[in-house]
Amino acid sequence: MSTLNINGQDRQVDADPSTPILWALRDTLGMTGTKFGCGAALCGACTVHLNGQAIRSCVTPISAAAGQKITTIEAVTGGQDKVGQAVHAAWVKHDVAQCGYCQSGQIMSATAFLKTLPRGKKPTEAQIDAAMAGNVCRCGTYARIRAAVADAAQTLA
Question: Which residues form the 2Fe-2S ferredoxin-type domain (predicted)?
Fold first, then answer.
């Protein structure tokens, strides 16, 4: 039995310590906002935050999260996270999602990136592209993703 701090709450997870965080979230806790994509940390669909940093939950074992804070898409877009709210609103405004499968990972990466910027700093296109490079969108909405991240940064400035 492992205790994981997820979205500010301690949750008991009855799983082997080598179980990836993704499966603890989805299968054990029923939190399906975080998606399975490739299982090899290549696509970004499974992105969550570990102590504020974007990580790939499909390859990170729950043992690595002991004593750490996991944040999922449910918390980032649930109304308590100012940056997450700005990113989510920009996603809707720019009509980013097509199939939507990668979007929770995209939003998690964008939110983590924008939280690293100094207050009032607007990222360049190159900075946005670099921050989002590990997230794959099969629908190819990269221009809209870039515009949404820039718009969210402008909103937060």
Answer: 1-76
- The C-alpha atoms of residue 157 and residue 146 are separated, in whole angstroms, by 17
Assign 27 a pLDDT band (cuts: 50, 70, 90): very high
- Record the pTM: 0.95
Confidence of residue 104 (pLDDT cuts 50, 70, 90): very high
Instruction: Kindly report the number of other CB atoms within 10 A of residue 61's CB atom.
Output: 18
Give the 3-state secondary structure of the chain. CEEEEECCEEEEECCCCCCEHHHHHHHHCCCCCCCCCCCCCCCCCCEEEECCEEEECCCCEHHHHCCCEEECHHHHCCCCCHHHHHHHHHHHHCCCCCCCCCHHHHHHHHHHHHHHCCCCCCCCHHHHHHHHCCCCCCCCCHHHHHHHHHHHHHHHC
Question: Distance of alpha carbon 5 from its chain centroid, rounded?
Answer: 16
Q: Residue 41 and residue 59: Cα distance in Å, rounded?
A: 6
* Paired tokens of 54: 């974007």
Say if CB 73 and CB 108 are below 8 A apart: yes
Q: Is 13 left (phi over 0), alpha (psi -120 to 50) or beta?
A: beta
